[in-house]
Automatic annotation (TrEMBL):
It comes from the Bacteria. Belongs to the glycosyl hydrolase 3 family. The keyword Hydrolase applies. It holds the Pfam family Glyco_hydro_3. The keyword Transmembrane does not apply. This is Beta-glucosidase. It comes from Paraglaciecola psychrophila 170. Residues 49-294 form the Glycoside hydrolase family 3 N-terminal domain.
Length: 360
C-alpha cells in the first residue's frame, strides 16, 4: 500500500513506519546473500533489480528537476529550470509545480524523480548552473524544500543531489573540492541539511567528485557520519550514474545503491567482498533494508488500480500543468536594469494596434 494511503497525522505516520519495517524485516529474513547483493545495483539505466522469487519488484527512476523525462518518453510538461524557479522567490508555487511533476512521474510509470539539484552556483561558467537554484544557501534550501515536499506529497520519491560540493563541470567526475569545514557547513551543505531534516527526501544522490581528496561515493565522514548519523537521513544513498570507484569502501561508507546497472563495483564484486570478509554483513543488511523500505513506500509492491492509472495519465502535459508552468515562468521574470525609469510603461503615451492588441 502506498505510504500516503495509510496516514496523515504523526501518530498515523509512526504506525505506517512500523508496518513498513515489519514487511522489510520479513523480507530480509527470506533473502539469500546473493539476492541482497543483487538488490543493491541497477538492472539497467533507469530500473533497479527485481527479486522475482520473493515478488520484490523493480522500481524506476527518471529525470529530472524541471519535468519528467526518460529515454524516448512521451511528452510531459516542461517547467522552467531551477534558476528560474528560485527567481520566483515563491516556495509554495514551486511546491505546487513539483506536485504536478510528481503526478506526471507516476503516470509515466516511475517511482522516483531525480531532483532537486541544490548545488550552489559557485562558479559562474559552470555548465549546469541553470539546473541548480542559486548562489545563496538559504534560497536554495527554501526552494528545494518546496520541491521535495511537492513531489513526495504525490507518493513519489525524490533524489536530493548532488551531495556535496559538486559545483562545476570541469573535471566533474574526478576533481576534488578542497574545502574547510566552516565553508562546507555555511555554504555548500545548508540546503542539504535543511531539506533532509524537514522534508525527509526518500533518496540522496552521492556526487561524482571528491571532497578533500575522497570520492563522495566512499566518503564515510560525509555519507555516514554527517548525512545519516548527524542529520538522521534514513533513506537510500544512490550513486550518481557511474560514480562508484570501489566496492568495500563504498558500502562501508553508506552508499546503498549503485546506478546504473548492470553492476560494476557491486554485484559479483560485492558478493566476493562479503565472502572474503572485507564487507560487514551488517552493512549489507542496512543497505538492503533501506532499499526495501523505498520499494514498499513507493507502492510498487501493491497493485495500482487501472482507474487510478487512467486518471494519472490524463494529467500528463495537461492544460492545468501548462498553466502552472507558465505561472512559474512569469513569476521568474527579473528586472536587472531600468535605465531612465522606462518601466512601468505609461499607457497614456503608447498606442497598441494590430490584430492581437486586445489580447496584450
Amino acid at each position: 500500500m502506498p505510504l500516503n494511503a495509510y496516514a496523515d497525522s504523526k501518530q498515523e505516520i509512526d504506525t505506517v513506519d512500523l508496518k513498513i519495517q515489519a514487511r522489510v524485516n520479513a523480507l530480509l529474513e527470506k533473502m539469500t546473500v546473493a539476492e541482497k547483493v543483487a538488490l543493491l545495483s541497477g538492472a539497467n539505466f533507469w530500473k533497479t533489480v527485481a527479486i522475482e522469487r520473493l515478488a520484490i519488484p523493480s522500481i524506476q527512476v527518471t529525470d529530472g528537476p524541471n519535468g519528467v523525462r526518460s529515454n524516448n518518453s512521451d511528452p510531459t510538461t516542461l517547467f522552467p529550470v531551477g534558476v528560474a524557479m528560485a527567481s520566483t522567490w515563491n516556495p509554495t508555487l514551486i511546491q505546487n509545480a513539483a506536485a504536478a511533476m510528481g503526478r506526471e512521474t507516476r503516470a509515466m510509470g516511475a517511482h522516483v524523480l531525480l531532483g532537486p539539484n541544490v548545488n550552489i552556483q559557485r562558479v559562474p561558467l559552470a555548465g549546469r548552473n541553470f539546473e541548480a537554484y542559486s548562489e545563496d544557501p538559504y534560497l536554495s534550501a527554501e526552494i528545494g524544500l518546496g520541491f521535495v515536499l511537492g513531489v513526495q506529497s504525490e507518493n513519489i520519491g525524490t533524489s536530493l543531489k548532488h551531495f556535496v560540493a559538486n559545483n562545476q563541470e570541469y573535471m566533474r567526475r574526478t576533481g576534488s573540492s578542497n574545502v574547510d569545514q566552516r565553508t562546507l557547513r555555511e555554504i555548500y551543505m545548508p540546503a542539504f541539511e535543511k531539506i533532509v531534516k524537514q522534508a525527509k527526501p526518500w533518496t540522496v544522490m552521492a556526487a561524482y567528485n571528491k571532497v578533500n581528496g575522497v570520492f563522495m561515493t566512499e566518503n564515510k565522514t560525509l555519507l555516514q557520519d554527517v548525512l545519516k548519523d548527524e542529520w538522521g537521513f534514513n533513506g537510500v544513498v544512490v550513486s550518481d550514474w557511474g560514480a562508484l570507484h570501489t566496492t568495500a569502501p563504498a558500502i562501508e561508507a553508506g552508499l546503498d545503491l549503485e546506478m546504473p546497472g548492470p553492476a560494476k563495483h557491486y554485484g559479483a564484486e560485492l558478493l566476493a567482498a562479503i565472502e572474503q570478509g572485507d564487507v560487514d554483513v551488517n552493512s549489507l543488511n542496512n543497505s538492503v533494508k533501506r532499499l526495501l523500505t523505498l520499494i514498499i513506500k513507493t507502492g510498487a509492491m501493491d497493485t495500482r488500480t487501472s482507474a487510478t492509472q487512467a486518471g494519472a495519465n490524463s494529467e500528463v502535459n495537461s492544460l492545468a500543468h501548462q498553466r502552472l508552468s507558465q505561472q512559474v515562468a512569469e513569476e521568474a521574470i527579473t528586472l536587472l536594469k531600468n535605465e531612465k525609469n522606462l518601466l512601468p510603461l505609461n499607457l497614456k503615451k503608447y498606442h497598441l494596434h494590430g490584430r492581437y492588441w486586445p489580447k496584450c
